[in-house]
Specification:
four-stranded antiparallel β-sheet; 3 helices; 100 residues; lyase (chains A, B); globular; PCD_sf (chains A, B); alpha+beta; homodimer
Chain lengths: 100, 100
């Protein structure tokens, strides 16, 4: 059973994920992603879905045309856990990979 | 340019889509879909994404594990148009098709 991070641990972890922010109301970490169009937004969502299924940890997320908003929280732990931090880092890495 | 439906037209169309409801706050028609797990929820989302791209009309939608919520509105028309009604019907038909 994964445990919720203490506030200091969470803030330290978030310092390494500068594009994610702590949403206190949702008790989650969130990031919004913009793409040129729906096709590219959904292609990204497909990559995130495969990652989430592999990790057994799934986002709460929404899409409106070219915008994707992802919210990560560990419901079983009642807050943000190391699983959320790890998944956020992996999602960020998806976007770093440019075609060769 | 597609036009917003008058209230009576919208209500008549919605009578044929009993699982969709008019969300006055969102100025949209919405439906929530439940699946056995994330994999099946995302498979459905992929089908909806292909349909939306083909129709050139895209949903505002969210997913949380096995639940998908779809909201359809025609932003250019400032409300619900025939395009939303048509897409809602096509989305419903995706779920009617059982494997042979």
């Amino acid at each position: 059973m994964v445990e919720k991070l203490a506030s200091a641990e969470r803030d330290e972890a978030l310092a390494k994920l500068p594009q994610w922010r702590h949403d206190a109301a949702e008790n989650a970490i969130t990031r919004e992603f913009g793409f040129p169009d729906f096709s590219r937004a959904f292609a990204f969502m497909t990559q995130v879905a495969l990652l989430a299924e592999k990790e057994g940890h799934h986002p709460d997320w929404s899409n409106s045309y070219s915008t994707v908003r992802i919210s990560l929280s560990t419901h079983d732990a009642g807050g943000i856990s190391a699983k959320d931090i790890a998944l956020a880092g992996e999602i960020d890495r998806l976007l770093e990979r440019a075609p060769a």
